[in-house]
UniProtKB/TrEMBL annotation:
Species in which this protein is naturally found: Triparma retinervis
Gene3D superfamilies for the chain: 2-enoyl-CoA Hydratase, Chain A, domain 1 (3.90.226.10)
Signal peptide start and end residues: 1-19
GO term, biological process aspect, one: proteolysis
Alphabetical UniProt keywords: Membrane, Signal, Transmembrane, Transmembrane helix
Domain Tail specific protease stretches: 347-541
Record carries keyword Disulfide bond: no
Protein name: Tail specific protease domain-containing protein
GO molecular function: serine-type peptidase activity
A Pfam family annotated for this UniProt entry: Peptidase_S41
Amino acid sequence: MKIFLATLLGLFTLGKGLAECTLGCSTVDSGSSCYTDFATAKGCLEGIEGEWKDQTLEVISQSLENFGFGSLYHNTGPPYNLQVPVLETLATIQETAYDTDFAFQEALQAVLTSLLDAHTRYKKPVCYSGAFVLPVAFDISISDTATASGAVEQEPSAGLLKSTFYDEYVKLFPNVDLAPLLSQPVSLVDGLEWTTAVHNWGTNHETRSNNPGARFNAAIRSFLYRSITDTVVTDVTDSLTFTMEDGTNVEVPWMTMIPDSTLFGNSTACLAEDNDAVESSSSRHDFVKVEGEGVVTHASLHNTRGGDRTVLISPDSDEAKYQISCFVQKVVGNKNSAKVGVNNVLVMKVASFSPQVNGADYNANWRGFLSSAQTCLDAEYDMIVVDVMQNGGGYVCLGLRLLQMLIPSYWKDNTKVQMKYDLPHSEFMEEWIEKVNYPDPYTNANDVEQILNPETQESFENGEAYYYPGRIVTMGGVQSNRTNWFCLDCREAEAMPVDYTPKRFVDPDKLVILTDGTCGSTCASFTRIAQEAGVATFVGTGGLWNQEMDVSSFAGGFVMNPTLLLNMTSQAGMTPFPQFATKQTWQFGWAAWYSQRLPTRPVQFTEQEPDHRIGFWQFPHVSVPADTTSDAVSSLYDSVISDQMIRLAEEGTCSGGDAIWIALVSTLAVIVLTLLVYIWFDVIERQEGMKQPLVEN
């Protein structure tokens, strides 16, 4: 009924918003998408009208009463030192009068963005769907720079390449001279060094990570592709100015890419319908898409060149739809191959832990994912590289099961990959426990990844068993009540693949996990568990060069959304949880997962450095041509394999200084041993002489 009334109200308040939104789009060879200039699009955004503010804030505020990190954000402490009074800021927004819905949406999104948590993210309604784009994308590489002392330091250098929007851009802006952008490196963007400009944008707009290095990797793409629904764009002006290496300034106007011109700026299209609140239970699983990745297919993530690579699961095959592809690369010709005992390297790309081949049939999706993993791991290899760059998570149990298939200690003892979780107490949950008392936080008895009692390794008897007595915890200087510890029930995944036993395991220095730091949620579980235990070697790509970077992001646990809360109130006979009047996406971090290394800290607020770093920023994105990404990632694999083999060879080889010391110590040891033997025999001879009888003359 609330949604129905809001729809009526919205229809009466459209006014000039819809009438004045005339895009005049260029749609040549673009299907239903269209392209227009910045000013036209901005006018449409500011013309969206609707009385949605109060209901939107009601949903957000009531949701955040169950926010898993609500107390901690008063002061997260090191390493990130965030202080965000979320509910207080929302109250201020409630009291503020905004001229347009766009201004309200920007203010709301700004405070939620400041949490730097991709699990807790707000997308504007669908009538805001679009992005400000440019005809170029960053192409960053490492170059050698001579210092004043004569030493050579490595430093990132930024070039530009044609983006996927280049041709449309030239049609819309034929008089903009783009040639200087593609012929030399960039020095400044809007008067700032390019690294500073990208870093500043990421800090204020990117939710992907609270780690600056990982956030920089995400911002490399979003800086030149600014999603209107996902990010705050009020501060976007009509153009960017690039200063090139030779001092040339090139002013480049923003173009607006609109996926569906029937939605953009259309207030009516924003209004929710009654069935918009119906979602499958799988919507709760921890998966965050990279912006624009819908058209970045798995096939573009690496090429399948012949010769030295034997493809086991092609990235463009049906089997790869389960999010795993792999090949074996021969390295026999490598000069370190025989020395380190590595002839074949298995390279696995795990794009996500959220296969959706079989719709809501999670069991079939799990079987497909783990069967693909088995296909890869049944090959002959001496080293493994697992690429989880940009993996947005998915089913937690799939990540944990893959760890077991890769690491012998986890295969022998599944409890070593179990994570400790808890939930915050709230009035909502107390009423839910009282009325339903279900032994799992979620409503669907057939849902996957239910919870276990870590002490008994069995399900809790009822809801009170995990909820009470709970624990009194101080986070961010605020004392609050939280549930007892629990872990996830992954016994179903642990029975897959059927009758499977790994053929081999490799040592930690031959199990390389490749991450860009934006690997998050379930992917964070996959990386952090192994990193904290020291059972794999981690190679981090990109980041802010020569500064620390985390191996993962948004490791918060698992998420909740208003639809699932509505389902809970319906099942318990509680007051229905409020729903949005508009079509949009909102979720928040609910359960907190705690570090094994620092047991009192949620993992999301700890930092784990990779063991090694490599200069790579050519990340897949909707704005980057697929063949460019494919070639770059393919070369990256070559470099990662070569670098690790060099490190393995160096670990087994002494330096010149070490060799001298070893020779001296060895010589000294021989001398000492000789002296000891001489003394020993001398003592024996003396004792034998004393035993001789005296002879009288």
